[in-house]
Amino acid sequence: MVMELENGDVAVSASFSPASAMTGLLPLASVSQQPYVSELLSFTLDRLHKEPELLRVDAERIQRQMQEVAVGNYRAFIAAADALVAIKEEVSSIDKHLESLITEIPNLTTGCTEFIESAEQILEERKMNQTLLANHSTFLDLLEIPQLMDTCVRNGNYDEALDLEAFVCKLSTMHPKLPVIQALAAEVGQTTQSLLTQLLQKLCSNIQLPECLRIIGYLRRIGVFSEYEMRLQFLRCRETWLTGILEDLDQRNAYEYLKGMISCQRMHLFDVVNQYRAIFADDTSGSEENYDGGLLFSWAMHQISSHLKTLKVMLPKITEGGSLSNILDQCMYCAMGLGWVGLDFRGLLPSLFEEAVLNLFSKNMNIAVENFQLVLDSHRWVPLPAVGFSAASIGEESQDDITPPPHLMEHPPLAVFINGVSAAMNELRPCAPVNLKNVLAQELIKGLQSVSDSLLRYNATRMLRENESGLFLALCRAFTEVAFPHCATCFGRCYPGGAALIMDAKNLYDGVGRLLTISSSKEPPKPVSNEEEKTTSENGDLPQPVVENGVDEIESAKADGKEENSATLQTDEAS
Fold it and tell me: Is 526 helix (H, G, I), strand (E, B) or coil?
């Protein structure tokens, strides 16, 4: 039986029975077999009985044709079989390669992804390079900003330098993640620090108010200091300038140094205070940043305290009363000028100058007493020619005349002492503090007491001959009757009523008075005439020149005393 399969081939059944065929094929008829089944159903019974035979004949015919085709085309079939084998092998190989390909696909995917990313990065860099090339001149200008700013700072073009600094700060704020901009900002920051140092150095120099205003304006634009810190920095720089001026003065000459210091304080301290008040005008209605909290007052008090400390150290080095008086006048003038800005320190000066005057007067009195002691210890007790008026006429002199009595020239120790006292009074007179009236009187009394004690000690420790004792007593009498009143008169010229303070201390020479009283009760020695003194020696030997008795040395000492005395007289008369 010959039947057509689904793929159109013809199949031959070896055993065929119509009943079984009908029962087996009909239910299994596919869509392609339906026409044949429909045709069978239309056949007669005889036709149906003949149908298997017809199918067998057709199958044999087809079988023969197939054999003929196979025999005639066996090479093609062999080639097809070989091809089928080769195809199977190739398919197996392809299958293996496909498995390897599937295994390598993730790596390929990763490589492609990396390539895409690398390509994108390269494209981005290329785009950046193109942008950089297009903006090359602008970028070059940006890189030259630090150098340009440094040039502006060195040439003093501070406005342009600060404009560049503000521009770079703006760029840094807009592009915080760009390394080039941040590096540029770092270089500009270093230049700004150099600018800040240069501005502070200018504040430490001799500049006027307009320049100070400009510098403070620049500092505010930089924004490094707060308002309080800026005020403090301004005062610190101005103090550095003032200190530099004072350091340039020569401290070896105390008088010239104090003159320069007072002049500096008078002019420059006044200017600094005015500059501060003009620049930092306090606004009490505003915020606390506009109020300095007493900073200017503290700084000014520091300057005045330093000024007074320097005065306290340097005043004792001045050895002339006229210089002290000049320094006092300049200090008072300086304090009066600073009083316009609330820095009047005149009330703090008297104690300093009183101490300096007291030290100077005490020093001069000590020198006078020491010189008296030296001359007294080395004095030769020989009679000297009478000079001037006698002691009896001393009281007849005018009370206004303070010229040292010429009678004292007969007593060199007293002449030296009076010269020393006159020098001390001359140094005291230009600058005589009223508060020291009693203290200085006590110093003078102390010096007179030292002279009295020296005379008593000399009388107790020296063995004098009769003629020497007479001369010594004459010196003591001159001390009590001439020297002491003269010292009181000189002190009275320095202080009204000062003579009474000295004269009230007459008890200081009670010992000398008792010595004179005891000596006057005895028979005074016979005076030796000048002619006998010139022709007769003390031991009764042959006449000798007066020079050999040491009168020549006394005369020279007397001449020195006259010179000192004349200088003192000229100073007193000039006053």
Answer: coil
Place 281 in a pLDDT band, splitting at 50, 70 and 90. Answer: confident
pLDDT of residue 293: 61
Instruction: Spell out a b/e string for 329-340, using b for 16 or more CB atoms within 10 Å of the CB, else e.
Output: ebbbebbebbee
CA atoms of 149 and 158, how far apart (whole Å): 9
The residues that bridge with 4 in the sheet, in sequence order, are: 10
Give the contacts of 101 (CB within 8 A, at least 6 positions apart).
none
How far apart are alpha carbons 142 and 172 in whole angstroms?
A: 12
H helix or E strand, kind and range, residue 162: helix 158-174
Taking a C-beta distance cutoff of 8 angstroms, is the pair 420, 368 a contact?
yes
d(CA 65, CA 69): 6
Q: How far apart are the first and last CA of the chain?
A: 177
Instruction: Tell me 527's DSSP state.
Output: P
* CB-CB contact of 235 with 296 (8 Å): yes
* Phi then psi dihedrals of residue 2, to 5 deg: -105, 130
Question: Residue 25 to residues 1, 20, 35: CA-CA distances in angstroms?
Answer: 12, 8, 13
Instruction: Count the residues in the chain.
Output: 575
Q: What span, in angstroms and rounded, lies between the C-alpha atoms of 282 and 396?
A: 72
Q: What is the pLDDT of residues 379-392, one digit of tens each?
A: 888 777 665 544 44
The CA distance from 162 to 198, in Å, is 13
Phi-psi domain of 389 (left: phi exceeds 0; alpha: psi -120 through 50; beta: other) = beta
Q: Cite the DSSP H helix spans in 346-436.
A: 349-378, 412-428
Q: Which two tokens stand for residue 555?
A: 């005369």
User: What's phi and psi for 11, nearest 5 deg?
Assistant: -115, 140
Give the helix/strand (H/E) hosting 562.
helix 551-574
Report the pLDDT averaged over residues 528-536: 36
Say which DSSP state 12 is in: E
The more confidently predicted of residues 508 and 289 is 508
* Those residues with Cβ within 8 angstroms of residue 171's Cβ, 6 or more apart along the chain or in another chain: 142, 181, 184, 185
Report the 3 state secondary structure along 296-316. HHHHHHHHHHHHHHHHHHHHH
CA distance 515 to 536: 30
Neighbours of 375 (CB within 10 A): 19
The CA distance from 185 to 149, in Å, is 12
Give the helix ranges, DSSP H, for 462-509.
466-478, 484-494, 498-503
Rounded to the nearest 5°, which phi and psi values hold at 524? Answer: -70, 145
Say what the pTM is: 0.61
| Nearest of 522, 530, 562, 523 to residue 404 by alpha carbon | 562
